[in-house]
């Protein structure tokens, strides 16, 4: 290992390789388990990533990419691995105003990229809670979603070009800036959302949009579940092209975030089973506000909405979003487990009812709090059963019920280590076998973020160093 | 071969295997070279596709998928192969109104799928000239683009789930209906746009949108190239979310489609260097028309537009689109070669000027007609030099100049056989090598549409039958 570290130090220059206490310090996170990396490597360029991968590949030593380390599925757990921290590769290399694209290094923080686009009158529409720490490399590697997927898609839909490094150090540079490019297999898709298991993302070209100049929001109370998709489709239709969010809070969530000690206060009275936050982004404030009012009137006339408030100012809009974002209140239910799933809207009501009944049957004091991006079929479920040790039993229920309705165990957070053992709930044996074959082809020595997404196929082919690292990783 | 045919006949049932004259008849097409398939197989189900692939795989006999056979790059050329015609797998299996998705078999004609969605108040926004013959399997396998990519994306962006069959007959079913689904590697991306080289698409789940109820169009004359991207960004901004097309016709194209014997007549006088067709789709006819007028006023005030007409009726809109679609007029320039490329908007003007100069230098009577989806960076270039035999020389110029500006040799048509030899103009050696490794992994016996996209890696591993087929294919 000393020999490898000396080599990596050479490649990475001063401050480029953290070991011992420095590495342990870098591995402290409140968000996610980072484990105990062998070392933390801080490359400054794609070429350095390539050289360090080549060295690790030759030595059979695993690597785990680190961006903002705000993931929620232990995808950056690095025990037994060299962590590749991208904090020295954080430049915005180019913003092409005519082409409406930006070229960004993997370590650039999402919010920094968003602000740089905005300064040019452009818009990078990826919006998520971790925006201030998550990196571009991280959101690309995990195909992050967030609040505006309904209109702008997932991260995958914003990536036009990508440069990545393969396990053996080969640089695959495909920094295409074009919306249309049908020249053979779309290799970048294998880097996007594969959580660092097939290659390390070093740079991307992102598609930008025009910066919206108007914003509207409304807060609604809804009496029945079946009115939710009707309402969604009504808004999609009436607010053609401008609907940017359709967030639903189940009663329990709304009550938690609007009662002491939460800072938020009710926007509409308690008592309705569902609350919806609707948002539009546009370019014509007067006209857009009128449309929102008109769409709401139609919804009221159709009996889809029991009560509604339209935000009259930025402060009121912010207040609505603040409720939606005050997820921390769920901790008031004691130890809880959070889930990020997606399923057909038509299956949601029965799924949640069945799951809640199953939880209550086993733990009579169980709590279940639900909210989510309904427009994307994405629900966040927070379950508390009073015991931290019950995680697996709760997971079995959540994912077991989900499997029956063809849902996805990960809508936007990814698989990482946490959901790996449940992958078969959402993917067929043929799919998992094919993923395994891809993994084996891209990473024959299993050094790329091993153990994430897929179980390691077999005993690694490398020397004793890797074997002990693996043991640590799986321990 | 007789033994294989007997087996395929068994699998496919009555009318399921066409040979001899019947196969030759099926291979007649005005659009594309289909070659002389060994036979034409017409499976009725995914299971039959699986069984027939298993048989062909065992025998080492190539297969080439056939949908509507309206491709433009000889991607369905089937000499030496069994063509898999999907015309008996053409059902729309489900339309989920709440979830706004449809599940469709590969052989369903695009227009049929669009109409079925429309009947439910929903919208499948893929729109291209071949809509009446192209199939869903074909548009997915080639990642078709078309007129509304600017707003709705390519076919790739509409596919939520996909079922495909691998070379050895393994069915990989991932009929996910969810917008958000981050459970491991996104395998469907390897089937989309890979032109049947990695697997055969059998079914897909498509994302639908609300059916627009308003439509506006305007026709503009523009004096300088640099005003085009400014105009595009102005419309994108002002018509937030509703801009669905921004089509540019260069002077020569506009004159061809508005003079005898073309049926079209000028909408604006001849003489401007560029004409633009702008379209919006929305849900508020009065409000949307007002916005279009207002955006146009801003464009006129900013000096971006020299002259403009707004369509006042569907007939007027149709007349605008009819000009754009009357591509057949380019045949009046004698034998021509058509190109489908994309490049950065900022590089377009110099690229076209350089290319035209190079064509004229070599062929003083050369013609070059240009039009395209400027919003996507996608240009269609029609070059005529008077000699049909000059194809390669013209290709060398078009792609050679394109390579210098980092353009793409195929924006939306794909690579097929026609562009294969130029792949290196748009993809790096590392990318091509990685594509080759994927091909070898997915299709070790090289039976899946061999020779398309990539050159066959080496002498096939199969028996003499395959060897002779290969010879035919490459002849």
From TrEMBL, chains A, B:
Keywords: FAD, Flavoprotein, Oxidoreductase. The keyword Oxidoreductase applies. It comes from the Bacteria. The keyword Oxidoreductase applies. Gene3D superfamilies: 3.30.465.10, 3.30.70.2190, 3.30.70.2740, Uridine Diphospho-n-acetylenolpyruvylglucosamine Reductase, domain 2, Vanillyl-alcohol Oxidase, Chain A, domain 4. InterPro entries: FAD-bd_oxidored_4_C (IPR004113), FAD-bd_PCMH (IPR016166), FAD-bd_PCMH-like_sf (IPR036318), FAD-bd_PCMH_sub1 (IPR016167), FAD-bd_PCMH_sub2 (IPR016169), FAD-linked_Oxase-like_C (IPR016164), FAD-oxidored/transferase_4 (IPR051264), Oxid_FAD_bind_N (IPR006094). Pfam families: FAD-oxidase_C (PF02913), FAD_binding_4 (PF01565). Its cofactor is FAD. Residues 33-211 form the FAD-binding PCMH-type domain. Belongs to the FAD-binding oxidoreductase/transferase type 4 family. This is FAD-binding oxidoreductase. It comes from Phenylobacterium terrae.
């Amino acid at each position: 290992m000393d020999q490898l570290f000396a080599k990596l130090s050479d490649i990475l220059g001063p401050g480029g390789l953290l070991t011992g206490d420095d590495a342990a310090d870098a591995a402290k996170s409140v968000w996610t388990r980072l484990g105990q990396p062998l070392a933390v490597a801080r490359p400054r360029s794609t070429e350095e990533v390539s050289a360090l991968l080549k060295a690790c590949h030759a030595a059979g030593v695993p690597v785990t990419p680190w961006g903002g380390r705000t993931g929620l599925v232990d995808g950056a757990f690095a025990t037994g691995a060299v962590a590749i921290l991208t904090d020295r590769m954080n430049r915005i290399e180019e913003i092409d105003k005519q082409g409406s694209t930006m070229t960004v290094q993997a370590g650039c923080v999402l919010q920094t990229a968003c602000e740089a686009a905005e300064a040019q009158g452009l818009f990078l529409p990826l919006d998520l809670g971790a925006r201030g720490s998550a990196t571009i490399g991280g959101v690309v590697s995990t195909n992050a979603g967030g609040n505006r997927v309904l209109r702008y898609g997932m991260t995958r839909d914003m990536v036009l070009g990508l440069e990545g490094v393969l396990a053996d150090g080969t640089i695959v540079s495909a920094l295409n800036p074009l919306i249309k490019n049908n020249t053979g297999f779309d290799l970048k898709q294998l880097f996007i959302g594969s959580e660092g298991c097939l290659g390390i993302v070093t740079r991307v070209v992102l598609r930008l949009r025009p910066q919206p100049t108007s914003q509207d929001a409304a807060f609604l109370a809804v009496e029945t579940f079946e009115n939710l998709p009707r309402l969604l489709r009504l808004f999609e239709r009436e607010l053609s092209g401008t609907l940017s969010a359709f967030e639903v809070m189940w009663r329990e969530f709304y009550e938690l975030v609007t009662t002491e000690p939460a800072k938020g206060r009710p926007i509409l009275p308690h008592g309705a089973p569902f609350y919806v936050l609707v948002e539009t982004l546009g370019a014509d404030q007067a006209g857009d506000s009128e449309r929102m009012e008109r769409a709401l009137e139609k919804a009221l006339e159709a009996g889809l909405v029991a009560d509604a408030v339209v935000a009259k100012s930025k402060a009121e809009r912010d207040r609505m979003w603040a409720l939606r974002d005050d997820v921390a209140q769920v901790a008031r239910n004691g130890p809880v487990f959070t889930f990020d799933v997606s399923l057909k809207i038509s299956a949601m009501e029965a799924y949640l009812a069945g799951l809640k009944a199953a939880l209550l049957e086993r733990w009579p004091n169980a709590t279940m709090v639900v909210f989510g991006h309904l427009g994307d079929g994405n629900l966040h479920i927070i379950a508390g059963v009073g015991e931290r040790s019950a995680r697996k039993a709760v997971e079995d229920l959540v994912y077991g019920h989900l499997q029956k309705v063809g849902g996805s165990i990960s809508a936007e957070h990814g698989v990482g280590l946490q959901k790996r053992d449940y992958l078969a709930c959402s993917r067929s044996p043929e799919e998992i076998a094919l993923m395994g074959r891809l993994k084996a082809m891209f990473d024959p020595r299993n050094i790329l973020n091993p153990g994430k997404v897929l179980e390691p196929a077999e005993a690694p082919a490398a020397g004793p160093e890797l074997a002990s690292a693996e043991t640590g990783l799986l321990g």
